[in-house]
Amino acid sequence: MTKLMAIIHKFLKKEHGFTLIEMMIVLVIISILLLVAVPNLAKNQATANAKGCEATIDLIRSQKLAYEIETGENLTDLQKLVEEEYVDTLTCPNGEPVNDNMLKFSTRTTTP
């Protein structure tokens, strides 16, 4: 039993760790992964912002039409949609404000 304890004690006293080469290899691999991932994340963020803005513009456009049908008047101030609780906000998810000119031109293409 003491022999087993001596072997365990010897094993536990041994210093374990990573060599400098191993650490450098890990850092190189992580750097390569970051070089690949970061540009894709930035591109996906821009695409998501654009799609979110398109969806917000479509929503405001449809709510403006609903307002005009319900009230029978031509809406000239979009802020009235917020006041009458047709929409919560007049800004895109990226913080860009939606104006009346954006509602006139649709960026989406419809397929039959």
In brief:
This protein is mostly helical. It is built from 4 helices and no strands.
Written description of the protein model:
It is a single chain. By secondary structure, this protein is mainly α. It has a domain at 50-107. The protein is 66% helix and 0% strand. The protein is rod-shaped.
Note the topology.
Elements lengths: L1 H12 L6 H52 L7 H5 L16 H5 L8
- Give the class from helix and strand content and strand pairing: mainly alpha
Query: How far apart are the termini?
Result: 83 Å
* Stretches with pLDDT under 50, minimum 5 residues: none
- The count of helical stretches stands at 4
Largest sheet: none
User: So what's the overall shape?
Assistant: rod-shaped
Q: How many DSSP-defined strands?
A: 0
Q: Please tell me how large the radius of gyration is.
A: 30 Å
Q: Give the oligomeric state of the chains in this entry, treating copies of one chain as homo and distinct chains as hetero.
A: single chain
Average pLDDT score: 83
Our estimate of the beta-strand percent is: under 5%
Relative helix content? 55-70%
Order of helices and strands: HHHH
Main location: membrane
Membrane topology: Single-pass membrane protein
Family: Belongs to the ComGC family.
Protein name: Competence protein ComGC
Give descriptors for this structure.
single chain, 112 residues, mainly alpha, 4 helices, rod-shaped
